[in-house]
Amino acid sequence: MKETVLGINVNTENYDELIPMIFDRIETKEKSLIVAINPEKIIKAKNDPSLKKLLNDAEFQIPDGIGVILASKIQKGQITSRVTGVDMMMRLCEEAAKRQKAIFLYGGKPGIADKAAEKLRELYPSIIISGTQDGYEKDNEKVIAKINEAKPDLLFVAMGSPKQESWINANREQLHPTIYQGVGGSFDVLAGNVKRAPEAFQKIGMEWFYRLMKEPKRIKRQIALPLFLLEVARGSKKKQV
């Protein structure tokens, strides 16, 4: 089920509801893209029709960001819990290990995908990682051939958004995997190069505040959140009238 936030579709399901839906698509060979939706992307999509189309064309749009949850509350919607990109990737890897579905990691600086793969094997000993490829290979055909030769069921692409989703959409019809997720800096987190906010911040949806304390220059990006919520509130009032 999906809800619309300022013209962008967002799934209302939580992790436990989404995971079976996603793995069912592997069985039926329905190629599907998972994109993470946050206020920043929604605001950008308002002025960028191609980004709006890219986000709305995805099969799954997960509510990554406390702002999307607050927006849903304002418009009396049904999105009640965050589904972050990095946690969705981890849940998918855990389930893939249980179901013996193969994954492939593509993107990041040389060696980062390999380190991320090592960490995943440590966390989920039965996981099948059919291959890795850094994001610095210029020959796209070589990348496609390597992924197809490995025959993974799930492909995680770490290039930053929306570049990673654009690459997936441009190539997925000639790629073997069924499930695709753009995961931004998740490989760096797994490799230990980037630290996530402490769990206490994650649980209350305040990762953004932790990052702001670490990087004060992010303040310009964070100012967009109240403006985003104000716009949602205005739109909600118009609908009521």
Automatic annotation (TrEMBL):
GO terms of molecular function: N-acetylglucosaminyldiphosphoundecaprenol N-acetyl-beta-D-mannosaminyltransferase activity
Enzyme Commission designation: 2.4.1.187
Record keywords: Cell wall biogenesis/degradation, Glycosyltransferase, Teichoic acid biosynthesis, Transferase
CDD domains: Glyco_transf_WecG_TagA
InterPro entries in alphabetical order: TagA_TarA (IPR034714), WecG_TagA_CpsF (IPR004629)
Biological or metabolic pathway of the protein: Cell wall biogenesis; teichoic acid biosynthesis
Pfam families: Glyco_tran_WecG
Catalytic activity, reaction form: UDP-N-acetyl-alpha-D-mannosamine + N-acetyl-alpha-D-glucosaminyl-di-trans,octa-cis-undecaprenyl diphosphate = N-acetyl-beta-D-mannosaminyl-(1->4)-N-acetyl-alpha-D-glucosaminyl di-trans,octa-cis-undecaprenyl diphosphate + UDP + H(+)
Functional description taken from the UniProt entry: Catalyzes the conversion of GlcNAc-PP-undecaprenol into ManNAc-GlcNAc-PP-undecaprenol, the first committed lipid intermediate in the de novo synthesis of teichoic acid.
Protein name (record): N-acetylglucosaminyldiphosphoundecaprenol N-acetyl-beta-D-mannosaminyltransferase
Organism: Ureibacillus massiliensis 4400831 = CIP 108448 = CCUG 49529
Organism taxonomic ancestry: Bacteria, Bacillati, Bacillota, Bacilli, Bacillales
